[in-house]
Amino acid sequence: MLVSQAVQPAVAGGTLRIGMTASDIPLTTGQTDNGGEGMRFLGYTAYDSLVEWDLTSADKPSVIIPGLATSWTVDPADKTKWTFKLRPGVKFHDGSDFTAETVVWNFEKILNKDAPQFDPRQSAQGRSRIPAVASYKAVDPLTLEIVTKTPDATLPYQIAWIMISSPAQWEKVGKNWDAFAKQPSGTGPWKITAFVPREKAEFAPFPDYWDKTRVPKLDKLVVVPLPEPNARVAALRSGQVDWIESPAPDAVASLKGAGFKIVTNAYPHNWTWHLSRVEGSPWNDIRVRKAANLAVDREGMKELLSGLMIPAQGFMPPGHQWFGHPTFKLTYDPEAAKKLLKEAGYGPDKPIETKILISPSGSGQMLPLPMNEFIQQNLAEVGIKVSFEVVEWNTLINIWRAGAKHESSKGATGMNYTYFIQDPFTGFIRHLQCNLAPPAGTNWGHYCDPEMDKLFDAVRNTFDPAEQTKILEKIHEKYVDEALFLMVTHDVNARAMSPKVKGFVQAQNWFQNFSSITMD
Amino acid sequence: MLVYALKRLLAMIPVALGVSLVCFLLVHLAPGDPLSAVLPTDASQEMQQEMRKLYGFDKPLVVQYGIWLGRVLIGELGTSISTGRPVVAEVGKAVMNSIILAAAATAIGFFFGALFGFVAGYFRNSWIDKIASFLAVVGVSVPHYWLGMVLVICFSVWLNWLPATGGGPGGSSDARSLDWEYLKYLVLPAITMSVIPMGIIARTLKALVAEILNQEFVQGLAAKGLDDRGIFRHVVKNAAPTAFAVMGLQLGYLLGGSILIETVFAWPGTGFLLNSAIFQRDLPLLQGTILVLASFFVILNLIVDIAQAALDPRVKRS
Questions:
Q1: Distance from B96 to chain A by nearest Cα, in Å?
Q2: Regarding predicted confidence, which is higher, B171 or A252?
Q3: Beta-carbon neighbour count of residue B6 at 10 Å?
Q4: For residue B290, what pLDDT is reported?
Q5: Closest C-alpha to A255, from A9, A505, A496
Q6: What is the pTM of this model?
Q7: Are A200 and B170 an interchain contact pair (Cβ–Cβ within 8 Å)?
Q8: ipTM of the prediction
Q9: Suppose B156 and one of A238, B129, B134, B248 were both cysteines; which one would form an S-S bond, judging by CB atoms 3.0 to 4.6 Å apart?
Q10: d(CA A509, CA A487)
Q11: How many Cβ atoms are within 10 Å of A108's Cβ, its own excluded?
Q12: pLDDT of residue B317
């Protein structure tokens, strides 16, 4: 079902076709599904948020910047009251005006079940992203007020998830989100011009985009769902697409040999074992946690993955703005590991025997089976005998939500899980805050440390970004120095592309900017 | 004949009910959360409960089955959890694509399968028989996803003659036509898919033709002075009901699509849809797709049985 849209003058930049890993086109209504990939291709392309990520640099981790809001401040007398000044002159793709009222309407679409525009699917994706929001109102056409439940300086990071759809378009298509999905309208640099479920979505540049530096240079962008890695590689090699997400590591060498570019960069993602801290877990002993971290041969694993990983030096990737200066170094030192285990009362005649939950596949899980087996061997060499409980990815998510004490964890003392770590809450707080232990949250291991909780509170109560960064550094130092996780590796977000693709700058972020790209 | 067809039709009802129960239970008993596609990974317990209620997963299984069956009977297969689109529309479009693929694969498979089978059976132990038998064995033995990849490497990557993936230009099967621009997307998956029925039909027919040729009536026909062409006609007539039965079952498999082939070629048929539904744990879509595919088998069995009875009176009598 092709969607007719006004024909735009060509910018003469060519057509870029991208093979996604998703098996369907993510939701086109604003708030997308399909995780980070959905937001990357169908979110930040066609829509904007009040707060955005700076995606212009490949050399440093991204920071948040003004988007549809030009500035935001918190009331010095009442730290729950925020004022967002909105960008004037912004138009939706349908020509209607962006105002504070439209932002309120968008909050209602995901938070207010009684609002006519409430959309359960967008709500499911967006509501949990803005847990701090208590209320919101338009003060004037370009001023928005948000009140949070408690003081929370991480609000701008939360707001960066909320995509602003056009109320006028929703009215025009009969107040129906399914109809809106076929004729979407946001304020983003790209307009969705065609949408065939499960087959493709097409975008054209939005010439009236408010940020002239981000008006796309291409004539057209096409995204195609290709969930099977070999199909993606074949489509790239046969010239059907120009860019694929996540080429299989064993295809990388042949793709390079055939002249394709493999582009990688650090980004906020980690691949870790989340350790249980419930009573009886061997990981309650810091010596055991440190020993495990010293026993993993991360360079060896890098070879296994054809170089497509960054060995962990901490919970955040090396060079990240919150990395700080941890004193515990994640080197490969089996002898030091054995010594630590001996001190903890273990040895070759008395190995630690424990069980870890893993999945055979899953979003962001990289190549979980061989990678976990590699670690299993590393740990066995120093005296930690690991057995695996292999469960399907969605089951693992359910177990993660249920917590280490729940019967579904089957007595496992760790779980292999990959984390999106782009903001303070998803990066740190949700994993370890005492009151976020299941069922209240996703502190799977039931870790609880008053000192860490104080740091988390400080993050929420520090509204000066530089001061907040210092606290986040302290938190990360505690993560590493106390070896709170088995920190193994970071993915490098590999994508393979035709040499015809020019001008792509791979930001150190889950999301990317497609406006700078041209095709030869 | 009418009575026979009616009896078969009535016998289909408990089978269809059984099929509906099995496909409902199978997807419900599988591990994992049916709402994982729509819930963010760190959704709160409250939110999970709320969504379960919204989608009716909080009700007892028996009630869920009753509601689901009631809707199915009026042709309503529900709404996809992940996309919110009606399952009927999703499955309908995928079925059309699978029918196109199955028709192409059937034509190729039936033609070559019958050819190899008759030739091998008729010229037993000759070199023609050996070649035809070899091809038939390869057909049923070769992993077809592997064959698909080999064909893609040869014809898409090396020779660049045919597209590697997709249902049409720009990744879209919409506006499908007999235009070569669309047809070329069909070639590789259809050839890959035709290989199994080709092998099965060839092997079945070879054995059958050989058996028929050994029967006394063939010797009788020859003794009466019938020429080879005449005898061959009789052999074909005797072998046809079995060939139809085998092809009917194969057609059922083909219409069901192949998850592997359709995934390898990103062909937007029922197999590809099933794959998506499984990975997204989209229960209504999964149930709807399985039910439609299972119904194909039930209906095809019925058609084949009736066709067999019409062709061979012994079936009706039995």
A1: 15
A2: A252
A3: 10
A4: 87
A5: A496
A6: 0.85
A7: yes
A8: 0.76
A9: A238
A10: 20
A11: 18
A12: 62
Q: How many domains does chain A have?
A: 3
Interface test with A, best of B165, B188, B262, B275 (most A CBs within 10 A): B165
d(CA A226, CA A241): 10
pLDDT score of B56: 80
Its domain, for residue A473, covers 269-490
For residue A475 the two structure tokens come to 């938190």
> In this structure, what CATH number is given to the domain that contains residue A201?
3.40.190.10
Same domain, yes or no, for A423 and A307? yes
Mean pLDDT of chain B: 82
pLDDT at B221 over 50: yes
Q: What is the DSSP string of B73-113?
A: HTT---B-TTT--BHHHHHHHHHHHHHHHHHHHHHHHHHHH
Distances (CA, A) of B117 to B197, B243, B286: 12, 10, 37
Query: What confidence tier does A107 reach under pLDDT thresholds 50, 70, 90?
Result: very high
Residue A281 placed within a domain: yes
Asked whether residue A17 is assigned to any structural domain, the reply reads yes
Burial of A479 (0-12, 13-18, 19+ CB in 10 A): buried
Interface test with A, best of B44, B90, B182, B263 (most A CBs within 10 A): B44
A179 within some domain: no
Confidence of residue A421 (pLDDT cuts 50, 70, 90): very high
Residue type, B97: N
Asked if A14 and A91 sit in the same domain, the reply is no
Q: Do the Cβ atoms of B42 and A240 come within 8 Å?
A: no
CA distance B60 to chain A (A): 20
pLDDT at A310 over 80: yes
Across all residues in chain A, what is the average pLDDT? 93
Q: May I ask the CATH class of domain B87-317?
A: mainly alpha
Partners of A33 on chain B (C-beta within 8 Å) are 37-38, 82
Q: What gap in Å lies between CA A151 and CA A265, rounded to an integer?
A: 35
Extract the tokens encoding B5. Answer: 């067809």
